[in-house]
């Protein structure tokens, strides 16, 4: 069985994907802070490590890296409605966009470091691709986790503002989208 590390980027269906990994592999979740820094000793001997951490955290283990990405505007909007009430109460979506711009790029840095990348918008296709990559049939019976309820529509002006702030995320997303669309 392959050993690998799942870099879980917030609001990309990573919670659902992590639970799929938990059901099909010997996994351990690294929930330690900081998300950068030293390797958590209890996790480094497990074949599959998952968590919200920077790709560099486990670089020394020389493991294959995988992740899931999402359309940057949709990811940021979801992130805003899921987290902003707690971390930026009373702030608008543009404020949140400025604080969290290019978050996927911050986690990934260089797409070439990743052996497999899924797409939120093509989740079933991503699971097919993942099965081929890992050489294992995985259970398709799963619950979708952490789906937020959007409070109100986001204006086209705000969407364009978010789009402009996330140029590095769009480079990554568009490259991965090509893999799935040919």
Calculate the mean pLDDT score and round it. Answer: 89
Helix percent band? 40-55%
Oligomer: single chain
> What's the architecture in CATH terms?
3-Layer(aba) Sandwich
CATH class: Alpha Beta
Largest sheet: 5 strands, parallel
Number of structural units classed as domains? 1
> Beta-strand level of the residues, as a percent range?
5-15%
Shape: globular
Q: How many runs of DSSP E, i.e. beta strands?
A: 5
- The number of distinct helices, counting runs of at least 4 residues, comes to 7
Distance between the termini: 28 Å
The ordered H/E elements are EHEEEHHHEHHH
Strand order of the largest sheet: 2-3-1-4-5
Class computed from helices, strands and strand pairing: alpha/beta
Q: How would you describe this structure to a colleague?
A:
43% of the residues lie in helices and 13% in strands. The chain is an alpha/beta fold and 182 residues long. The chain has one domain: 3-Layer(aba) Sandwich (Rossmann fold). Strands 2-3-1-4-5 form a five-stranded parallel sheet. The model has no long low-confidence stretch (mean pLDDT 89).
Briefly summarize what is shown.
This protein is α/β, with parallel strands linked by helices and 182 residues long. It is 43% helix and 13% strand.
List its traits.
alpha/beta; five-stranded parallel beta sheet; 7 helices; globular
């Amino acid at each position: 069985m392959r050993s690998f590390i799942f870099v879980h980027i917030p609001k990309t269906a990573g919670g659902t994907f992590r639970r799929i990994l938990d059901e099909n592999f010997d996994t351990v979740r690294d929930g330690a802070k900081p998300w950068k820094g030293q390797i958590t000793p209890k996790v480094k001997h497990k074949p599959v490590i998952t968590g919200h951490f920077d790709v560099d955290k486990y670089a020394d283990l020389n493991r294959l890296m995988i992740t899931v990405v999402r359309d940057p505007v949709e990811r940021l909007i979801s992130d805003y409605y899921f987290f902003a009430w707690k971390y930026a109460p009373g702030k608008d979506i543009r404020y949140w966009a400025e604080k969290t711009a290019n978050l996927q790029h911050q986690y990934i840095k260089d797409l070439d470091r990743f052996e497999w990348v899924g797409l939120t918008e093509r989740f079933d296709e991503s699971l097919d691709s993942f099965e081929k990559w890992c050489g294992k049939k995985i259970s398709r019976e799963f619950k979708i986790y952490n789906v937020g309820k959007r409070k109100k529509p986001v204006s086209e002006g705000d969407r364009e503002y978010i789009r402009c702030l996330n140029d590095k995320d769009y480079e990554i997303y568009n490259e991965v989208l090509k893999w799935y669309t040919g």
